[in-house]
Amino acid sequence: xxxxxxxxxxxxxxxxxxxxxxxxxxxxxxxxxxxxxxxxxxxxxxxxxxxxxxxxxxxxxxxxxxxxxxxxxxxxxxxxxxxxxxxxxxxxxxxxxxxxxxxxxxxxxxxxxxxxxxxxxxxxxxxxxxxxxxxxxxxxxxxxxxxxxxxxxxxxxxxxxxxxxxxxxxxxxxxxxxxxxxxxxxxxxxxxxxxxxxxxxxxxxxxxxxxxxxxxxxxxxxxxxxxxxxxxxxxxxxxxxxxxxxxxxxx
Length: 251
Ligand code: NAP
Prior knowledge:
Blueprint: E1 6-10, H1 15-26, E2 30-35, H2 42-50, E3 54-59, H3 65-78, E4 82-87, H4 102-130, E5 133-138, H5 150-170, E6 175-182, H6 188-197, H7 201-211, H8 220-230, E7 242-245
Helix pairs in contact: 1-2, 1-8, 3-4, 4-5
The structure holds NADP nicotinamide-adenine-dinucleotide phosphate (NAP).
Residues 10-11, 13-17, 35-37, 61-63, 88-91, 111, 115, 138, 140, 182, 184-185, 187-190 line the site of NADP nicotinamide-adenine-dinucleotide phosphate (NAP).
Organism: Aeromicrobium halocynthiae
Family: Belongs to the short-chain dehydrogenases/reductases (SDR) family.
InterPro entries: KR_dom (IPR057326), NAD(P)-bd_dom_sf (IPR036291), Sc_DH/Rdtase_CS (IPR020904), SDR (IPR050259), SDR_fam (IPR002347)
């Protein structure tokens, strides 16, 4: 049986984060739906409450220390101390290295790495107090290297190191930390990539599916299912792992 916990899912207004938030709520957890724009969170929150779950919309930029502190304080007050964190908020600023601006580099590092650090740091004391916690960080198959993504691949590889270190430091407090490294998942993010390379999204999906061993692209629910497992009571001996969810060994 699932013991209800308070979960924070960042970047949960849409895409993978929205699916993870809905799945964790369906599993019985109270979910803070965090995204840049609080209004944009209402779709996810409404879907959760319509299904009988409990959710709170919280507007915050995860790369801002003051936003994150205020967001976590609000979650504690309105939903209870968070003991599950899914660091999912993400942005792309793809370009070949010679054309990549310092701003493109800093923005990607700020959201993925600094954001995951800030949210995890703010939440970990509640996990330690509860002697129980689960951290799930969204990495990517791009961590292995991907043309046009020097910033993103470095951030996603960095998240794997961050995850393993969290697992080492927090394990004795009953806290596990794991990373999910998705391959191609059908969301606005991959739609934007198709647009950037000038290929209709349907063709992009079809071509990508042909390269993937299971012959389909991923859906946000594929990642939500993995996150549900990693935050479950029974996954307490799984820590410091990177689980590639990519329809094969890589995308
Ligand atoms: P998405 O559809 O673009 O959704 C990302 C969400 O994060 C958006 O709602 C976005 O808000 C929010 N966000 C961006 N910057 C933020 C910030 N500073 N603070 C709070 N929220 C912020 O992306 P997705 O495809 O669902 O991806 C989710 C995660 O999975 C990302 O970490 C991504 O890198 C990773 N991933 C995705 C794929 C894939 O194929 N889709 C593959 C591997 C890994 P706005 O809408 O306001 O920008």
